[in-house]
Amino acid sequence: MFRNIGEMVLLFVATVKALPWACRERRKIAEQLFDIGNASLFMACVLSLFIGGVLSLQSGPVLVENGIGSALGNLVAIAMCKELAPVMMSILVAGRVGSAMAAELGSMSVYQEIDALRTLAINPIRFLVLPRVIAISIAVPCLVVFSNLVGWLGGAFVAAHNDRIAVPAETFFTSLREGVDPGDVVNGLIKSFFFALCAGVICCHQGLTTQGGPRGIGRSVTKAVVNSLALILILDYILTRVLLPFDNGFFA
Amino acid sequence: MSDSRSTGIPLKVRNLRKSYDGRVVLQSMDLDIAAGEIFVLMGPSGSGKSVFLRHLIGLEAPDSGEILVGGERVGPDIDQTRHRLAMVFQGGGLLNSLTVEENVGLYLREHRLKASEEINRIVLEKLALVRLGSDDAGKYPSELSGGMRKRVAIARALVIEPQLILYDEPTSELDPLVSLTIGREIVNLNRRIGATSVVVTHHVDLAMGIADRIAFLSEGAIVALGTPEQIRSSPVPLVHQFLNAEFKEA
Ligand SMILES: Nc1ncnc2c1ncn2[C@@H]1O[C@H](COP(=O)(O)OP(=O)(O)OP(=O)(O)O)[C@@H](O)[C@H]1O
Ligand SMILES: [Mg+2]
Q1: H helix or E strand, kind and range, residue B69
Q2: Confidence tier at B77 by pLDDT (50, 70, 90)
Q3: For residues B150 and B156, what is the distance between their CA atoms, to the nearest angstrom?
Q4: Are A146 and A47 in contact (CB under 8 A)?
């Protein structure tokens, strides 16, 4: 396992070193971005709507009973933008896109396509890993912005239409506007960027190190997704802790 | 086009050893291959032929020993050497996400060695060498037959204008006629560009037909080496069995 981590760090370093080539690979980055959006935008929308909704549903009645129903918008919005949107979008993308990356690179390893690239003196990291990691690191924060908006709408909808809550949308959004500052959103975006970066590197690493024929591809995909999820959640705690001092107005 | 017939480079292997997880796959190989030679490597399945080829092009690092290609040591910093080496993989190793044309032109395009129209011209020219037309150029590897895929892989290797070209079982899984064509192409290409060729094959007839010399590998060691005639009359029992077994099957 420690060897794996070491290899991943090396892959990450190699990817960073390949960054100057990013401009040349922009076509591939764009293709990857398109693929990611295509694969996850609809799911992101549905997920966010329901996450926002359930946040309202769970906390709304309690707040209303205590007479602070007007703070619901604030609570839902903060939970969404600082925690749930970054984590859920990263998990969604790791599951939908990361798994596909691991499978694609895995089959390329198994069918000697990567060896072939090497014999053509083409660096597989620049050619394959760089565009994917860049694309995923751009795509996830974008999805988080989108997810925030949809999640807030979902929360507002449930708040307004559930009998036990009945907080009008206007109150909800007023509280949201007062309670959330851009720093909170940026906080979530920073987290999601690192989640995506890690997921991208893990999935590419699993793909590149696939061994043992078509069966190995399945194994790689499973490992890629499971490891990504674990790391996203662990990293979530660490990043939240690290970003804590910057709360309350650093970005505002 | 490369004009000279003397572009081939010699190959020296000294005391090459490799083991995986304590299992010895290559044991102390020594080999000299002359410039422009067609050298055929035969041997039972699992005897280390593919592993040997992968060492020659720097895809694997030996445990000990060295490989000199044209006097240059094949090692981790092999890049300059690589530009003159090409390998045709057993399954072709074509990139499935790229068309035939893109696969063949990949090397030139990625290294920005030529202008775009020039690359297109070269690609068609190399495809023609392996008898593929421009109508195949736009297809994806999955739309080709196994034999065509292998020929595309050869075309892609040729674009490098290689001085050393390695073929890993170029005729496995092909019908005898296509095998024959590929065998002829290997010889033709060798004549035309003079590249040193190392061919791994299980086809005895093909080997006898094209080889300048044949080496017989068993459990990671060379047990017989010589011209096709010498190999035919080799006293080594394994070689004898192997050749005759294959003849009966064929
Ligand atoms: N990456 C690897 N890790 C562990 N063992 C390996 C690896 N590559 C090859 N081997 C082992 O090395 C031995 C030789 O394999 P190799 O592929 O060279 O055989 P081969 O002579 O090409 O056989 P075939 O004719 O079937 O292609 C095999 O026993 C194989 O299990
Ligand atoms: Mg082999």
Answers
A1: strand B64-69
A2: low
A3: 10
A4: no
Please report where in the chains the tokens 């560009």 appear, as a residue. B193
Q: Are A113 and A119 in contact (CB under 8 A)?
A: no
| Full residue range of the structural domain in which residue B198 is found | 1-84+163-250
Closest CA to A159 of A145, A146, A147, A172: A172
The ipTM value here is 0.85
Q: Residue ranges per domain, chain A?
A: 43-240
Q: Mean pLDDT for chain B?
A: 84
Q: Ligand 1 in contact with B46 (CB < 6 A)?
A: yes
Ligand 1, atom 4: nearest CA belongs to which residue? B20
pTM assigned to the model:
0.86
Instruction: Report residue B48 as tokens.
Output: 């280390």
Ligand nearest to the CA of B167: 2
Q: Which two tokens stand for residue B241?
A: 């069995």
- Looking at the CA of B52, which ligand is closest? 1
Q: Do residues B80 and B173 share a domain? A: yes
pLDDT at A47: 94
Task: List the single residue in A108, A116, A121 with the smallest CB-CB distance to B89.
Answer: A116
